[in-house]
């Protein structure tokens, strides 16, 4: 569920939604999501002073907490 949420949000923010990929690495109590976008869209995902990235991480954290896990989002260029 977390993977699909991040993918949906990222696709709606970028100019090249076909280049958005999310890789999920799941541990016992932790989920790591690796978000990859087109190089020219990296700035749109991070946002000014990292505001969009922080908002994405907040939403992801809230969703994962509901499932009893912790989640982190890594943005790959």
TrEMBL record:
Principal location: cytoplasm
Tagged with keyword Cell wall biogenesis/degradation: yes
Bilayer-spanning residue ranges: none
Record-linked Gene3D superfamilies: 3.30.300.20
One Pfam family here: KH_KhpA-B
GO cellular component entries: cytoplasm
InterPro entries: KH_dom-like_a/b (IPR015946), KH_sf_prok-type (IPR009019), KhpA (IPR020627)
Subcellular location: Cytoplasm
SUPFAM superfamilies, A to Z: Prokaryotic type KH domain (KH-domain type II) (SSF54814)
Any GO BP annotation: regulation of cell shape
Keyword Cytoplasm: yes
Classification via CDD domains: KH-II_YlqC-like (cd22533)
Entry GO MF terms: RNA binding
Keywords from the UniProt entry: Cell shape, Cell wall biogenesis/degradation, Chaperone, Cytoplasm, RNA-binding
NCBIfam families named in the record: PRK00468.1 (NF001748)
PANTHER family in alphabetical order: RNA-BINDING PROTEIN KHPA, UPF0109 PROTEIN SCO5592
Subunit structure: Forms a complex with KhpB.
Function: A probable RNA chaperone. Forms a complex with KhpB which binds to cellular RNA and controls its expression. Plays a role in peptidoglycan (PG) homeostasis and cell length regulation.
Record family assignment: Belongs to the KhpA RNA-binding protein family.
Protein's name according to its UniProt entry: RNA-binding protein KhpA
Organism the protein comes from: Candidatus Ornithospirochaeta avicola
């Amino acid at each position: 569920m977390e993977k699909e949420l991040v993918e949906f949000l990222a696709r709606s923010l970028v100019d090249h939604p076909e280049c958005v990929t999310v890789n999920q690495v799941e541990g016992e109590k932790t989920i790591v999501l690796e978000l990859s976008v087109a190089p020219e869209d990296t700035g749109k995902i991070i946002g000014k002073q990292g505001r969009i990235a922080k908002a994405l991480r907040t939403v992801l954290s809230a969703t994962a907490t509901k499932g009893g896990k912790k989640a982190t989002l890594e943005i790959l260029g």
